[in-house]
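Researcher: I'm comparing several assemblies side by side, and this is the next one on my list. It has 1111 residues spread over two chains. Same procedure as the others: predict the full complex and return the structure.
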Amino acid sequence: MASENSNSKSVTFENVTKIFKDPQSGQDVKAVGGVSFRLEPGELVTLLGPSGCGKSTILRMLSGFEQPTSGKIMIGDNDVTDIPPNKRDTAMVFQSYGLFPHMNVSENVAYGLKLRKVKPQEITKKVKRFLEMVGLSEMSKRPTSRLSGGQQQRVALARSLIVEPSVLLLDEPLSNLDALLREQMRVEIRRLQKSLGITAMYVTHDRVEAMSLSDRIIVMRSGLISQIGTPSEIYRDPVDTFVAGFVGKVAFFPCKVNAIDSECHVEVKGKTFSTPRWSDKLKAGDTALVMARPESLSIAEPGAGIENGVVTANIYLGSSVETWVNTGLGNVLVQIDNPDVKKIWNEGETVSLSFDPALTKVLVDDLFAHPAAN
Amino acid sequence: MKKRIIHFSLAILFVILVGWWIYSSVRDEFMKQSRDSQRRTVETIIAGFPSEPQDIEGWLARLAEDKDKNNYTAAFINEIPEPGKNLSETPKGDSELAKLLLENSAWDTEFTKGFEYASYEEIYRSVNNWTVGNKEKQALFFAPAVSLKTHDIEGVLVFAFNTDGEQDFMNMLHMLFLGAFILFFLVTWQLMVSRDPIVGFALAGLFLMTLTFIAYPLFEAVRLSFMENGRFSLSIWKTILTTKGYLSALWGSLQLGCWTATFSTIIGFMFAFVVSRTNAPLKKLITTMGILPVISPPFSLTLSIILLFGNNGLITRWLRVIGLNFSIYGLPGLVIVQTMGMFPIAFLTMTGVLQGIDSTFEEASLNLSATRLKTFTSITLPLAVPGLLSSWLLVFTTSLADFANPLLLAGDLKVLSLESYIEVTGMNRLGHGAALSLLLLLPTLTAFLAQRFWISKRSYVTVTGKPSGRITELTTPRVRRVLTGIIFTIIIILVMLYGTIFAGCFVKNWGIDYTFSLENITEALTRSRDALIDTVTLSAVAAPAAGIIAMIAALLIVRKKFFGKKLLEMLLMTPFALPGTLVGISYILAFNHAPIILVGTAAIIIINYVIRELPVGIEGGIDSLKQIDPSIEEAATDLGADQATVFRTIVLPLVRPAFLSSMSYTFVRSMTAVSAVIFLISARWYHLTVLIYNFSENLRFGLASVLSTVLIIIVFTAFGLMRLLVRENANMIKNVT
């Protein structure tokens, strides 16, 4: 689809910090500590992280509701650090939608245009077009209270998009919807964002949402950026065990780095492997962790693999079976694709695990720094 | 940011310089004018210096006679004094000035210079200001006394000019420029540095308002109670705390408060218990009648009690026939009237408390085979104790602050609110009045603190958000019959009291001639026309002002973080605890002199209404806003609305019920105000309630009845209208959260 929004702009954060004062103790709390990144025009970037990691604060600083303690925020070439929210060319979709309860659907959508003193006929035309776009043409005169959650979400979306902002901001917009609707809306949001060619920043703590929507993901932790990358980079090539654990299920095998050349050669339980990816902080002789995703693990007879364990559960999902194996490393999830043509091990059977080294990455052992994500 | 601060500093510097230049030229020009006019006065006077020495004394006396018209005193020295030598004789004329001259002529350089000027037939004005007798800040003029006949200098005429006018003008000038500068500073600061200038302006406005119209008058009242003859002194407080009359007023107030609070709480509890804990019939009626007196105008119950039990009352007559002689004026009558008027406060408080107590507790007790009485005494009552205490305290403070009822019914009983009114209007002892009404604040503050720090900590009422529709029946049918019997007796008495006022409208001359007549109605309506229009106008102006300010204040308090929020909140809520008499007295104290003179204007009455009814409106606004998702307002801001637009298009429609009830509350309270407004009315701006009081004082009960009825009709219409408008909103509000 052709890009409708020619004025979509980049967003730049330069070393932005935000310090709050804790109202109880009066102490300073660093919500965001020195963050820099750049969104390209038309790109959808997700801020992903556990609650309290500062992702919402970043979004609120971009929209202008919070003012950074230090640093600089740019939209396009304009420094907006000191610009109040109503003068910024951003539009936000709120977690609780924030629909105006005393206005009906089309009044809600028209609000931003009225403020911009657009002519009434034009407003009517545009509101009609945007309601069509989100599939709510029939409901234009309804009070927002008589809409379902998904419909309210669409109103909020239309209300933000109609003012043709340079940047669209979405603050966990799907967290109030049920699972099925969430998947639908995810597709919908992505479709609208792409068709309008609008720069978008999306905040969520749901990794599946982040993976399926984003051009790029910013993984955050304790007010700092852990990693910025495309969904596949983040999944396959995480910078540390935190990112590895946060963006997907994972098992870690302790290992020793023997040598690093064009590959990383490690030794796990006396067996040697070579993996194509490794953390560049590692050097030969370090103890480290081999990170393996469920689909890179496989189950074999006891003794054949690296780690022995007992099958505790089998979850049949149609296209795959998830087998949980209790090992000395904890409960490990193994994904067996095409289960109908593969051997499935019964609960209680003793088995051994092995992994496909081509799909793994060797990471610095920093598990003591945080509890394993699984 | 740095650049802006530099711009800001430069702008301020520029304004300071320009301001200083304007200020000093205005000041110099004024001083020059003032001195020139004094000099001209002196020239005119000395031109009339008598030629014969024996006429001098008479001439000086004539000058002194004019003293009230002229702002100077004069003295004549019969020689040209020489430096270092004492005067040979006491100067003639004003004795205080003569004394000053005797003391200073010999050695003070200014005096020497003055005499020297006089000897050259010139006029000299002292550079310093002098204290002459008890008059401070006098400018001295030394002028030659030239005999018209001989053209010789006979001596020196000395004039002491009062510079109070100059001082006042200078003070005003200082205030003006300081104020203008502060205003400029704040506005510029907001515009240049803040991202949210509208919020800044609103905050500055609120702070200015509370400081000017709440903190400043209170401060003035406290200050005046510690002043005597312009100096700090404890004498007023000493007098008040040792004079028997004042102490008996304190005692009277406390007695009245205790009795009223006790009876009101008992009756209120009965009403509340029957409504929220039994299956008694006609609960709607009981509730309505239990709330009614709260909005009934002052004087109405007093008036009907007087009509029935007064010296010429309907029932008094009958009782006299059977040989009973009594007077309703005094403590018993007041307790009855106040209880009738104030038990609704206890009823409302107790209903809230009883409904907050989960019936499951009582069910559990009954289930464990406790009797109903045992359940009531061991479960319901203990849980209700904090509520009982707080409703007692609330009625107690209301009774203490009550002014309207004692005004008509106190008889020989002395109470503080009335005593402070008499001090101010009868004796013109403002300081004593202020001190007495401050004394009234003491029990109120104690009650408030007790409520805040003691009772609220012992409250077991829990808000579950799930009102259980079930009521555990705790009364046997017989107990229920007794309770409803008492309640309906009270309701019937209330109806009778209101009926009496209504009947009073149509009777020729109550107590003497009970024939039907419409004369009172026509006379009352013609005589009260202006007052009625004034009252409605002032209330109608105050209502929207209070509503809007309350909503803005609530919005800022709930949604914004700013420095001094606690202080602002406290100041805004203060008038809630202030007795009306104190507010009235402190307003006339604060606003009858510079820098703000408002006494006698409509503004002072309106401001008083707004300030006094703000706390209730703000509370309502805060409660309402706390239920509204902040992201609704943020969404509007995000779409490009500035704070004022957000307030107008989003907040105000959403808090409409709170806004409307704040408005109607202010309107009704303003229509029925007495205690503060009685100090503030003027010939131009009068109040209906004061007129009712005047008519009652003059025993024109018919006229008073008509006006009371009119007030009741207006008040009920206003409330009805508000209910109607709010109901319209009900659907929408359900979905705000």
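Model: For your comparison table: Chain B touches chain A through 25 residues (CB under 8 Å).
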